[in-house]
Amino acid sequence: MKIDFNSPLSLPAQVKEKILARIESSIYKPDERIPSEENLAREFGVSRMTVRQAIVEMIGEKKLYRIPGRGTFVSGSYFKETLNEASQKFVMLVVPNLRHSFYYQIISGLESTLAKNSFNVLLRSVNEDFHEEKTCLNNVLKYSVSGLVLIAGKYSSSNLDLIEKIRQRISVVCIDVRVIGAKTDFVASDDRKGGFMVTEHLIELGHKNILHLAGPEGDSSAEFRCNGYMEALKSYGIKIKKELIRYTDWHFEEGYFETKKFFLNGARATAVFACNDEVAAGAYKALKDLKITVPDEVALAGYGNLDIGKFFEVPLTTVDQGANEMGKVAARILLERIRNKNTSEAREVMVPTKLIVRDSCGIRKKESVANAIEESQSRR
Fold first, then answer.
1. H or E segment and range at residue 264
2. What φ, ψ does residue 297 adopt, rounded to 5°?
3. What distance lies between CA 244 and its chain's CA centroid?
4. What proportion of the chain, given as a percentage, has pLDDT over 90?
5. What is the pLDDT of residue 380?
């Protein structure tokens, strides 16, 4: 029953196939608890995180459901009967996609806080698609849930009227990306400060030509990080060059192609600041393919403090967004509104960011050189 590591299918996709096969063959029956993540990981010979990703995706597809404190179950009569009978104990959570571990951190913080207060989470992924989000939001109006938590995307503004319609019926909190015009509570990380900190770090290491892979235009998270980047340059008297700001999406592929295109076209930069760690991973691969070494020739920094950054060949300097805390804050705000029928003005909460310094910007090498010089001078 082990996973085939030579298969073109991803590991989570193979885990999903195996679980689904057991459901279809009635090994796992409707409303029956499946084995724990730990047991499945041991049986399939993969990490627990791989199993978790597969299960989260299957929950989003409504093939499984989770009851905090009890386990994960095969979907059956649960959604038909329990949803209406215990509607006041359910919150709908809508996420852009389930590719990024960043969203898992938010989900973890949200779910743990709601579970402690006897609320369950219904999870739905919309695959970064406006139409899928619209369909999902329309379904929210059909379900008798107590609240909605929307981890928004830049496309969410197109569903503003629908979000407002939902807000008039139940409590709504938006996370991460600002939905322009929405009157909902909003929780995000302090991306302007995060962008400023990582850019300042690069400047203090001597870099002036810093390529910024800035994320998608029109996305508030990306725009605030870019604003922080530009503010840091201004504060150090460094001219902002439009050619050093390249808009991407949030994925590995865009980081790879934009970085490779930039350097192949003869442009020059001594550092790269990527809008998130996945884009930074793409940039790192592009630099490696171009035989440009990190950090000796080009420094590299990401954003988000995903686990992937720790395992780069040269560990990645990044910014911790406090994603788990974002989920907890959003849950607390939602619970307050549900329980107290709070009708006060919508709130905006910024979760602090923190610079995580590793090897990819060369800071440790610089420090060792400085220490060697200091020791040499002290011996004279």
1. helix 252-264
2. -100, -40
3. 25
4. 68
5. 45
Q: Would you state the structure tokens that stand for residue 196, as one six-digit string?
A: 């400023």
Query: What are 206-254's pLDDT values in tens digits?
Result: 999 999 999 999 899 999 999 999 999 999 999 999 999 999 999 999 9
What is the phi/psi pair of residue 280, to 5°? -60, -35
Question: Residue 231: which of 288, 185, 177, 190 has the closest Cα?
Answer: 190
Tokens of 33: 């608890």
The CATH number covering residue 222 comes to 3.40.50.2300
Helix (H) or strand (E) holding 200: helix 191-204
pLDDT value at residue 372: 39
Calpha distance 298→205 (Å, rounded):
12
38 and 165 in one domain? yes
Within the chain, which residues score under 50 in pLDDT? 78-87, 364-377, 379-380
Cβ-in-10-Å burial (0-12, 13-18, 19+) of 65 comes to buried
Q: What is the pLDDT of residue 192?
A: 98
For residue 281, give its domain range: 191-321+355-362
Q: DSSP string spanning 120-159?
A: EEEEEE-TT-HHHHHHHHHHHHHS--SEEEEE--GGGGGG
CA-CA-CA-CA dihedral for 158, 164, 165, 171, to nearest 10: 130
The neighbouring-strand residues paired with 74 are 64
Contact 342, 125 (CB under 8 A): no
DSSP state of 81: I
Domain shared by 36 and 174, yes or no: yes
Query: 154 and 21, same structural domain?
Result: yes
